[in-house]
Amino acid sequence: xxxxxxxxxxxxxxxxxxxxxxxxxxxxxxxxxxxxxxxxxxxxxxxxxxxxxxxxxxxxxxxxxxxxxxxxxxxxxxxxxxxxxxxxxxxxxxxxxxxxxxxxxxxxxxxxxxxxxxxxxxxxxxxxxxxxxxxxxxxxxxxxxxxxxxxxxxxxxxxxxxxxxxxxxxxxxxxxxxxxxxxxxxxxxxxxxxxxxxxxxxxxxxxxxxxx
Length: 212
Description:
Number of domains: 1
Order of helices and strands: HHHHHHHEE
Helix content: 55-70%
Largest sheet: 2 strands, antiparallel
Strand order of the largest sheet: 1-2
């Protein structure tokens, strides 16, 4: 696959979107039910831990995007770049947590986790030397999945508004997907004509096609 740059780029591109589309709904679902479930299962003292969840969840979402890029770089023999990126991630996270937790409390941990994701720029820069990756759709999905994570920070009367971009963008992408694949189906039908079964003298049925 490495010899075929187009296929290699397409595989990474599709993988990035699938990573976000798989993980994003789970993170949003937990954000929606956690305020009700966590206190009942673990006690009210754990309710404060939900303050840091949105930041950690976004860091997890970003990490899922660049994990695939790290795997691609391993395939390309760029393992030292991956090592430098993850080493920088550890240094940034530890430094950020040390500086921010004492000043911001639990949210400082979340900010440190999110800030450490800047080290993944090393992965992006090295992969860009081999192939060009478009992040527009993946970034849009990260944003619309990220907004509902902060719904709890708004009043109950207004927290629904952070779910609206996710619903609108999801419906738009579903419509685009349906329209695109509908056109492909019609083009295949017009190219292949109509299929029908013919029964021979022995009674068996065979599938045949006729051009319209």
